[in-house]
Amino acid sequence: MNLAVIPARGGSKRIPGKNIKPFAGKPMIAHSIEAAKRTALFDRIIVSTDSQEIADIAIKYGAEVPFMRPAEIADDFTPTQNVLEHALKFASESAHYDYMCCIYATAPLVSTEYIKKGYELIKEKNANTVFSVTSFPHPIFRAYKINEDGSVQMFWPEHGLTRSNDLPEAFHDAGQFYWINAENFLKTGKMISKNALPLILPRYMVVDIDTKEDWEVAEFMYETCKSKGLI
Fold first, then answer.
1. Residue ranges of the domains in the chain?
2. Which of 117, 73, 80, 124 is nearest to 102 (CA)?
3. Which residues are registered as beta bridge partners of 196?
4. pLDDT per residue of the chain (231 residues) written in tens, 0 to 9
5. Which of 40, 41, 78, 106 registers the highest number of CB atoms within 10 A of its CB?
């Protein structure tokens, strides 16, 4: 059996109400719920929230909210893995789950196709975790930092004259979904432990929404991906 867990805390600071703010005609969280439903992979889709408003919207779009998240795991500093552990233990009281998939509530570009590919990969490779990643658009080894006095300095000055072609490609967490072996997770408490595999997404399907500008960029990307049948 498979469990989907969508964490959705109520106290977003940088974009107030981000989890349920209207995005492309529906609340932000609805995109994650509907993508999970379209896969037809999940026996339960649970939203973990401390907000009754978020809970009502989640239920409207087809998710379950069988509990309200306790205050001790609903602050700014609570790791996602603590929220997942609470949800999995709750769900496991009534059924055994082989895999859990964490899908973030603020991932409107999340693709049903890629969620399915992640599931196929974790089963095929008997991995503990499969999670979405994408590549950095520029070699990270040529990155600069800005000092307090306004001057710039390379993080890795030894690569100042290294050709981009000769530097390894680097990847970062796409912040969309994480397929997790449920038994291993309950043993280790880690979302990404040993035997974790990446599922590479194209950069045009990944955006981290933390500012108003990010939101506007995400809307443009969503419309393009939607028009091409990618989401």
1. 2-134+170-227
2. 80
3. 129
4. 999 999 999 877 778 899 999 999 999 999 999 999 999 999 999 999 999 999 999 999 999 999 999 999 998 889 999 999 999 999 999 999 999 999 999 999 999 999 999 999 999 999 999 999 999 999 999 999 999 999 999 999 999 999 989 999 999 999 999 999 999 999 999 999 889 999 999 999 999 999 999 999 999 999 999 999 998
5. 106
Q: Contact, 114 vs 35, CB < 8 A?
A: no
**Cβ atoms within 10 Å of 77's Cβ, excluding its own:** 5
Which H or E run includes 146? strand 144-146
Instruction: Quote the DSSP letter at residue 64.
Output: B
Of 133, 106, 57, 118, nearest in space to 222 by CA = 106
In sequence order, the β-bridge partners of residue 26 are 23
Find out if CATH 3.30.1490.270 is the number for domain 2-134+170-227: no
| Closest by Cα among 45, 44, 179 to 100 | 179
CA angle 173, 174, 179 (to 5 degrees): 80
d(CA 218, CA 146): 27
Q: Which residue pairs, CB below 8 angstroms and at least 24 apart, start in 155-161?
A: none
